[in-house]
Inverse folding.
């Protein structure tokens, strides 16, 4: 699942990891500067949509408190 939100590209996908179970993989990248705000993976039963909404909240927080991200 991929979306553009407030100048950021957010990608969230559930894929099988090398261990054989599903994990959430994600990236949140500012489009204009190609700055990677967040990326990684974790084991969760959350839906991709729920995770995407959480990262949208992170982007909102970035605009409200940019000094915390520099």
């Amino acid at each position: 699942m991929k979306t553009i939100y407030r100048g950021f590209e957010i990608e969230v996908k559930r894929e099988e990891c090398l261990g054989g179970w599903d994990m959430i993989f994600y990236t949140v990248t500012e489009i204009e500067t190609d700055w990677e705000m967040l990326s990684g993976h974790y084991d969760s039963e959350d839906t991709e949509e729920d995770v995407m909404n959480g990262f949208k909240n992170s982007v909102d927080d970035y605009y409200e408190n940019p000094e915390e991200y520099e």
